[in-house]
Design a protein that fits this description.
heterodimer; A: mainly beta; 7-stranded mixed β-sheet; 4-stranded antiparallel β-sheet; 50% strand; globular; B: mainly beta; 6-stranded mixed β-sheet; 5-stranded antiparallel β-sheet; 11 strands
Chain lengths: 111, 110
């Protein structure tokens, strides 16, 4: 059972580089989310989407962009990577107001 | 005041003991509540939903107190495998941004 799949699992970026974290889900969920989790800290919402073509900012959107062209995919784009973006990134999906399912996480280090 | 607050712990509890922790939320309009478990370097996984009437799943009991705006998690007969961080999650209907607490770290000691 695939669920929510994120790639890559690990990545090292240099300051100023850009990259895209891929996320896809096969549960036909309308809602998808991107969270980041810094060491010893809670999850913070970056962006979320309630359906294809609709995205909205979360708590910490600066430095990121998203798109939602299909129900399945919700990529997260980092432009001009900064050391402050070193974190673990979790993609998630859910039916409305219900249990949220996470991908396994993407560990990103910016040096 | 934070939207969702948890005691970060750590709670160090001997195997077989009962442990409980609370989570408070600030938005009285919050509709859905969950407990998630997160193991070290892993993604959070749903432990249980929290219903108004309270609910039990084996050794785990979750309760909701709307008047005081908190939810609780009780673990009975704790096992070594219960060692993890427990995240409180609150959802405000109509605003599909789940809010996570920072987690309570639990370590079960042999």
């Amino acid at each position: 059972n695939a669920g929510v799949t994120q790639t890559p699992k690990f990545r090292i970026l240099k300051i100023g580089q850009s990259m895209t974290l891929q996320c896809t889900q096969d549960m036909n969920h309308n809602y998808m989310y991107w969270y980041r989790q810094d060491p010893g800290m809670g999850l913070k919402l970056i962006y979320y989407s309630v359906g294809a073509g609709i995205t909205d900012k979360g708590e910490v959107p600066n430095g990121y962009n998203v798109s939602r062209s299909t129900t399945e995919d919700f990529p997260l784009r980092l432009e001009l990577a900064a050391p402050s973006q070193t974190s673990v990134y979790f993609c998630a999906s859910s039916p409305p107001g219900n249990t949220i399912y996470f991908g396994e996480g993407s560990w990103l280090t910016v040096v | 005041r934070k939207e969702v607050e948890q005691d970060p712990g750590p709670f160090n509890v001997p195997e077989g003991a009962t442990v409980a922790f609370n989570c408070t939320y600030s938005n009285s309009a919050s509709q859905s509540f969950f407990w998630y478990r997160q193991d070290c370097r892993k993604e959070p996984k749903l432990l249980m939903s929290v219903y108004s009437s309270g609910n039990e799943d084996g050794r785990f009991t979750a309760q909701l107190n709307r008047a005081s705006q908190y939810i609780s998690l009780l673990i009975r007969d704790s096992k070594l495998s219960d060692s993890a961080t427990y995240l409180c999650v609150v959802n405000n209907f109509g605003n599909e941004k789940l809010t996570f607490g920072t987690g309570t770290r639990l370590t079960i000691i042999p």
